[in-house]
Amino acid sequence: MKFDSSSMKNILELMNNRSEQAIRTYLDTSATQMEDYARKNAPWTDRSGSARLRLKAHTEKRANGFRIVIAHGVTYGIYLELAHEKRFAIIPSTLNYGTTKVVPGFNKLLERLRNG
């Protein structure tokens, strides 16, 4: 019996690429949802609108997977997060939102990818 492993290798690479693309798309969409959440729910009063507008979230590919990063785009963002007994912090509640909304959907995506 002869077995040509090159075609199987190509199929597995294609499946891996499609899975990675599906995961990346889901996480990019989730990052956008988290960014929107942070902007809508930031508890501070806008003076210039810069802090709210420059809250950004994006997906990064890492050696061991992906991660969603959310951060302030203004230099005083650290003070909004830590000063005044953290009353103006938005990052922790955004991460909580991500955990409750993004993670369950991501687990469903992984299950669909596993089951074909």
Describe this structure as you would to a colleague.
The structure is a single chain. With 116 residues, this protein is an alpha+beta fold. The protein has one domain. It is 62% helix and 12% strand. Strands 1-2 form a two-stranded antiparallel sheet. Helix 1 runs antiparallel to helix 4. The radius of gyration is 19 Å and the shape is elongated.
SSE blueprint and pairings:
Layout: H1 5-41, H2 50-53, E1 56-62, E2 65-71, H3 77-82, H4 91-115
Antiparallel strand pairs: 1-2
Helix pairs in contact: 1-4
Please summarize what this structure is.
This protein has 4 helices and 2 strands. The protein has helices at 5-41, 50-53, 77-82, 91-115, and strands at 56-62, 65-71.
List keywords for this structure.
4 helices; 116 residues; 62% helix; two-stranded antiparallel ribbon; alpha+beta
List the domain count as a whole number. Answer: 1
> Main beta sheet: strand number and arrangement?
2 strands, antiparallel
Order of helices and strands: HHEEHH
Radius of gyration: 19 Å
Q: Name the shape in a single word.
A: elongated
Proportion of helical residues = 55-70%
Note poorly predicted spans. Answer: none
